[in-house]
Amino acid sequence: MKLPPFEYACPTTLNEAVALLASHNGEAKAIAGGQSLVPMLAFRLARPSLLVDLRKLPGLNEIKIGADGVRLGALVRWRDIQDDKRLESAHPLLKAAIAHVAHYQIRNRGTVGGSVAHADPAAEMPGVCVACDAVITAAGKGGTRAIKAADFFEGALTTALKPDEIVTEIHLPAWPAVRRSGFQEFARRRGDFAMSGVALFYDLDAGGKATNAHIGTIGVGDRPRRLAKAEAALNGQAVTEALAVKVGEAAAAEVDPQEDIHASAAYRRSLTGTLCERALLAAAR
Amino acid sequence: MGWRMTTKFEVNGKPVSVNVEPRMTLADCLRHELRLTGTHVGCEHGVCGACTVLVDGEAVRACLMLAVQAEGAKVVTVEGLSNDADLTPLQKSFRKHHALQCGFCTPGFITTAHALLTEEPDCDADRVREVLSGNICRCTGYIGIVEAVLDARAAYKK
Ligand SMILES: Cc1cc2nc3c(=O)[nH]c(=O)nc-3n(C[C@H](O)[C@H](O)[C@H](O)COP(=O)(O)OP(=O)(O)OC[C@H]3O[C@@H](n4cnc5c(N)ncnc54)[C@H](O)[C@@H]3O)c2cc1C
Ligand code: FES
Ligand code: FES
Predict the structure, then answer these.
(1) Looking at ligand 1, which atom is closest to the CA of residue A161?
(2) Band of residue A278 on the pLDDT scale cut at 50, 70, 90
(3) Can you tell me the mean pLDDT for A33-52?
(4) Domain around A259
(5) Cβ <8 Å between A35 and B61
(6) C-alpha dist (Å) from residue B53 to A44, A146, B26, B41, B152
(7) What are the start and end residues of each CATH 3.10.20.30 domain in chain B?
(8) Fold for domain B89-156?
(9) Could you count the other beta carbons within 10 Å of the beta carbon of residue A15?
(10) CB of B50 shorter than 6 A to ligand 3
(11) Domain co-membership, A244 together with A164
(12) A88 and A114 assigned to the same domain
């Protein structure tokens, strides 16, 4: 369908952008890559009165890598992550997950800030954020605040952002050399949203056992989440095939999957267990 | 008529100026305002790839971009990838490998393949398949399209 009518502004400073978003009684919306918002407009699922284009905001398209981890500016595109060789060691889990996002043309425009703000339950970036305890920075009329990923995603397409708030940065904590990670997802066609996905990592201790296990899921339930029981089954153990099966079973038991036209709840549950097992074995390899 | 904006950009090497509603997509602007009907519109929500154009050298979905967002950009459409004299190597390769039947999807495949081969003239069959996975063809079954793109690589090597 053709898009509903709206006004358009392309501010050059963050303050101006926040003021514009605040000026339309909650009816204004930011647009970054437009790769989720324009389809929402085409389906008339969104009818903003004003679109505030973020593309001219300075400094938001940088990937900064330092001792405290990886900082992704909100306007960093999927393509920028794929092209950045430093991330192979600085954040292998991010790199592996982003390889599954959408298609070539969409990756040239879609942004990390847009993805977390859109909060599709099956999207990879929100899943990585939750699995890695990322911190999301947002700027609004009330100033700037840091929101933990676990508090940011409130439900399908629902976040803790206020209407006048703009995501400026996503901070993924540092990646130690002893860390092992795996990412697995399953979609019927390449580039489609996953029916389930697992992003996990653990740190190897001096005795070769897994500690600090983080296991996150996407596509099962209304938001990405970590699986505490599956993590407990992994902590303190050496990763073997038998353990991977056990952790996978714990993950399958712990998720609360939804049923929709793409898959039944039972299928999603079973799939999550299998993907968790595979991700763990891939991490150990 | 709603709110309109004047937007200037470049299409196939020529400067253009349009006065459009912000809700007009770049795809509709190219077709209806600029009469460049080579860019096809299939799904209008980002899944089919028929509307692919190059913006500052990168392949993008023209149905997911607003015309007003093209301000200052260099846009190349499928028309800009042909010349009157002869078929280009990519076009010849599509003909040779029967990479089109009805042709509806073809502008999207040509623009996407051109961007890929320009950036990565050494890409392998897996990479070609991965990149073309964002374009849907209802006729050919893809084998011919993948072969055509692989065969055209030589023409893009410097
Ligand atoms: C065919 C297709 C397949 C796709 N497949 C996948 C997939 O497999 N996995 C996946 O993760 N995604 C997928 N996507 C979505 C894509 O990754 C989007 O790029 C992404 O979800 C949104 O990023 P964007 O920059 O395009 O945001 P936009 O579409 O511009 O915005 C999305 C939402 O976020 C808000 N917003 C944007 N930026 C900010 C900001 N900085 N601060 C506050 N709010 C903001 C907007 O107001 C809007 O509500 C797919 C899209 C298409 C069309
Ligand atoms: S018309 Fe743009 S992707 Fe289908
Ligand atoms: S040739 Fe008919 S859709 Fe591709």
Answers:
(1) 43
(2) very high
(3) 97
(4) 179-284
(5) yes
(6) 24, 38, 9, 11, 19
(7) 5-81
(8) DNA polymerase; domain 1 (1.10.150)
(9) 10
(10) no
(11) no
(12) yes
